[in-house]
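>> received
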Amino acid sequence: MENMRLLLTFTLIFIVLMLYQAWQEDYGTKPPSTLGTPTSTLETPTAETPTVTSSADSESELPNPQDSQVGPVDLPTMQMRQLLPSESPITVETDVLKLKIDTIGGDVRQLYLVDYPVEMKTPENPFRLMNDELPNLFVAQSGLLSKDSAPTHQAVYQAKHQNYRLRDGSDNLEVKLYWEDKEKGIKVTKVYSFQRGSYVIDVKYLVENNSNQPWQGRLYGQFQRTEADLGGSRFLYTYMGGAISSPDSRYDKIPFDEMQEASFKEDHRTGWINGWAAMLQHYFVGAWIPEREQIYSYYARMLTMGNRYILGLYGPTQSVAPHSQQTLSITLYAGPKLQNKLAELAPSLDLTVDYGWLWFIAQPLFWMLDTIHDIVGNWGWAIIILTMLIKLAFFQLSATSYKSMANMRRMQPRLVTLKERYSDDKSRLNQAMMELYKKEKINPLSGCLPIVVQIPVFIALYWVLLESVELRQASFIFWLDDLSSPDRFFVLPLIMGATMLGQHFLNPAPIDPIQQKVMLALPIVFTVFFAFFPSGLVLYWTVNNILSISQQWVITKKIAGDV
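>> returned
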């Protein structure tokens, strides 16, 4: 009976968690729906490090550092007739990316992932990660800040060509944009470098100082995006927002409401070496990664025009001597959350695959799942084998729990007799039950600990199956052609419900009739609930149930003599 109560409690907690996540997605903190009016000038605070300002204080899209070397950015007044003005888009195509770079700012305005179609039935329609149109605006911007002269992401560049494509047999592609201030003798070449098979984009600024004075400035990279509904299941909440790697935390989420409320405190998040700033969504990420061993600082704000959020970082002041040149570099990653590749790019960047607070369990589980997949070549079979290995690891703990249940089942007739005898005296009933347990050397709580120990592993595996982009549109067998989507024929959830019903009849029935009805209803509730879950999760739960039934049936038959 105690095991039944524990199972019921865990089930209710799980359901409440899923409902809360769905509620957060629908009714959580959202940006204001009304559009504000931008200020007509770009304001720069006087602090030495950028100050996070709310939209009421400033509508600047630029970072605002000011020190003795780099002063306020002197830009002309601009009335924004559109959110992101465009002049001359440049199309770029590699084997894995299709993107548009605009000559205004040299921004990445649109970016498509060729190997990740929106739907499997339309492979010619690639997933669009970045977009310069509302409501789902998401762009990557970078530039230089200087009191002398430098191109920000609002400057106008020139390009030799309008179309670039990675040729067959070539592994590299460069796109060059040109900006020049002839009056001050400063020329900047912005170079995008692409590699075959890679979602890493190297961004370099070649600064040529043809003046008689030293040029000083700093490099910055930032994202602009809106908080838009990207679709997906209402029952499965996944994080969308900002994240940084800082001295306080290797992986620190910066939700949109923090940017909106100016609660992102930069004074504790400056001077971080080997950090990064990223915008996350389910399965995909955009991240600015500065050069190693350089000190970068973070900034964030909200712009009321279009309800845009800005998250970025800027580097230290660089100096270019007269009649010389120097290259400033930063890296942009825009693509799927592939853990191995992210870990190679920057420390802790693989944590953007958000496995929650049980990441230290989830990451080894994913490594095992990935290793098995490399052997069998099918993610569905990999899930089944991993489930079997986990079940094998907990075999003895599960056996202890099932033995306790079997002994309780054997005592069931005697417990019913006691309930009938002391139906009007609960205190005497409990005393008689404890005497019976003591006489038969049965501990009703002995099966609880094994279940509790396994719960963190099950939750971690749940997040692995939910968050891993490798399972997106991964096929299994027959009609199960996408393990990240619900079973469209509801066959797997029905099988899972049948396994839960089988477990119900193997477990000792609660003495209380109300508890009996509740426990009998759970398989039905779970079947309906899991009908909307990704089939990969349902597959794991079904296989785990089948293995549990097999083990419990053998133990129950051995102890009780029947099933």
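>> Residues 1-6, 22-58, 71-81 have pLDDT under 50 and may be disordered.
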